[in-house]
Amino acid sequence: MKRLMEKYKSLKLNTKFSLVVVLLIAIPMLVFVILFFKFLKRGVMYQIVNALDSNMEEETRQIDNIVELCSMTAQVFLGDVQLQDFLTDLSQKKEISEQEYYYFSKNNISLYEGMINSNPYIDYIHVYADNNEFPEILPILFHGDRVKPLIWEQNELSGEWYLNHKKLSSDKNAECISLVSYIENIFGEKVGILEVAVKEEELFSGMYSLEQDEWKGFVSDTDEVIKGQKFPYPQLESEIQTLMETVGSNGDYQYKQVKSEGHEYLIAVRRIEALSGNYLFVVNTDERLQDMSTRQIQVMISMVLLFVAMILLINLTVNRLLRKFYETIKVVRTIRDGNIDTRIPDLGTDEIGDLNRQINKMLDRIQELMKENIDREVLIKNTEIKALQNQINSHFIYNVLESIKMMAEIDEEYLISDAVTELGELLRYNMKWVSYNVTVRDEIKYIKNYIQLMNLRYDFEIVLNVKIEEALYNQEIPKMSLQPIVENAICHGIVETVEDAVIYIKAVSYQDRFEISITDSGMGMSEEQLLKLEQKVQGKIEASGGAGNGIGLKNVQDRIRMQFGEPYGLKFYSKEKCYTKVCVILPLKQGGKDEKFTNR
Fold first, then answer.
1. Contact by Cβ (8 Å): 297, 312
2. In this structure, are residues 556 and 492 in contact, taking their beta carbons and an 8 Å threshold?
3. What's the CA gap between 334 and 599, in Å, rounded?
């Protein structure tokens, strides 16, 4: 062993690397082959179960929809007061004139026929009156004695479904499924019977479109069976019965793998409470498992052949990789000595070549970050100088505004006085020397003044509605981050409507963030306009200068992400000619302040 280790140490690096690569590939491959055949059948069965579950989910959803549609249609008939009154007159043997018959047939019966014709699933609707001596109005109103040959004639009717039911129409051989209920008048008296029927092949359409190795059926709680084809697996009846007993309420789903007489089956049962029964699905999985096993074995053979070919090419590839590697090390050492202007030459398109390109990009990024850091420091200094200049000039502006305000109050022009006050507060907010961030309370106050001034400008009124959790008023946000959104809402959403509008500002908190949404009742945007705006704000397309180009919103997005990071920023929602909603997502800070984000 010692001699083997010494011999291994004496090998060249490319030979060592080749041996390691071969071992790292051969050992996992051997383990994979062993585990593959162990779990192959389980994986195939998992695919079959998923396909079965999806199939049953789709079919039972269609059954539920048809059942619900029939129930809703039945409720329309049961709640029809005119139908109740007409049936009450018939049950009391009152004399009904031809004009009343004509009116009822033209208005009510025609309406019922229209409902049936517009519903693709309902086969027919019959109303059986408690009278056998009146002229029947086909195809809706029938004598009461027509129910005698029907399977539900002796039952207490309470909105139950009846299976394997022959209908009273020309197509008497068609199996129907009927929802049957008593019709009661306003006094609770039973005056007739309502039957809403669908064809069996419409309700259980999946039973009539089966693969060769499948069977589907429905078994009611009273052991009535509906099946599109003859049941081909009688040896599975006890297993099916046991599985049905384990199914719970409506929508529950159970399946089981069964071996019988040398074959493997998958049995699935889903409960349909509305029909008081279970939907069954039986699949013979022999052929599917065999096909999958054959394909998987073919894949494994291909992988083995590929592995053999790969071993032959490893040594040549390793030699080329190491040559490029040593050239890369040489340049990296130059960079380590401080020469970041050095770049690694392009050495191909393989992994080493990609590594070299990434190193070059990293050096480019380092230089960009250094330049951005210098520019940021210069910007901060210029901002501080500009803010100081604004602070110096603001005293003169405030004094002039106070003089105008006093003149307006002397002339009892209080509207002008209030406008001057609001303008002064806006200017004070803009010029005030504060940190980079302000509180939500300050920003909302600024927006309220801005809205008041906008209402002076336009002939219509803009109503500001604010709903913010009290604890969020002390949270910090970038200064002037909400005002551009409100300005966009007015200029590009509300002004075009030329009518009174509402801007709704709402703020809610979550676990580690809070969200301020600004919604206007303006023109909204089409999906194309909304997508274009999102691309501009995200910087995917250029937002050049000019009105309505999204540059103000992009600046807000850039400021938020520069300060807080990628998870935060703006989100947009809009419906054309209805509304536009902009959500500002910011980090939630305990106590509302965080020194990390202040005094910038």
1. no
2. no
3. 40
Q: For residues 224 and 119, give the distance between their C-alpha atoms in angstroms, rounded to a whole number.
A: 27
DSSP tag of 137:
B
Instruction: Give pLDDT tens digits for 365-390.
Output: 887 887 777 766 665 655 555 544 44
In Å, how far are 234, 282, 597 from 261, measured between CA atoms?
Answer: 12, 15, 74
Q: CB count, 10 Å around CB of 225?
A: 13
In the chain, the amino acid numbered 35 is L
Phi, psi of 133, rounded to the nearest 5 degrees: -120, 15
Q: Is 448 helix (H, G, I), strand (E, B) or coil?
A: helix
Rounded to 5 degrees, φ, ψ at 223 are: 65, 20
Helix intervals (H) in 132-285: 200-203, 237-246
**Residue carrying the six token digits 């959403």:** 493
* For the chain, percent of residues with pLDDT exceeding 70: 78
Q: Under 8 Å CB-to-CB from 156, ≥6 apart: which residues?
A: none
Kind and range of the H or E element at 298? helix 286-336
Extended beta strands in 261-333, E state? 263-272, 277-284
The pair of three-digit structure tokens given for residue 384, joined into one six-digit string? 């501080």
For residue 180, the surrounding DSSP H or E stretch is strand 175-184
The pair of three-digit structure tokens given for residue 382, joined into one six-digit string: 């210029």
The separation between CA 188 and the C-alpha centre of its own chain, rounded to angstroms, equals 46
CA angle 448, 454, 456 (to 5 degrees): 115
Does the pTM of the predicted model rise above 0.70?
no
Please count the other Cβ atoms lying within 10 Å of the Cβ belonging to residue 125: 23
Q: What is 332-346 written as a DSSP string?
A: HHHHHTT-TT--PPP
CA-CA distances (angstroms) from residue 170 to 124, 139, 592?
Answer: 12, 11, 78
DSSP states of 22-79: HHHHHHHHHHHHHHHHHHHHHHHHHHHHHHHHHHHHHHHHHHHHHHHHHHHHHHHHHT
Asked if 256 and 269 touch (Cβ cutoff 8 Å), the reply is no
Contact 519, 485 (CB under 8 A): no
What pairing do the DSSP bridges indicate for beta strands 122-129 and 141-142?
A: parallel
Distances from the Cα of 146 to the Cαs of 141, 142, 190, in angstroms? 11, 7, 17
Q: CA 448, CA 519: separation in Å to the nearest integer?
A: 15
pLDDT, mean of residues 405-422: 68
In this predicted model, what pLDDT tens digit does every residue of 325-339 receive, in sequence order? 777 777 778 877 777
Q: Residues near 404 by Cβ (< 8 Å), separated by ≥ 6?
A: 416, 420
CA-to-CA separations, 236 to 263, 272, 477, in angstroms, rounded: 11, 21, 68
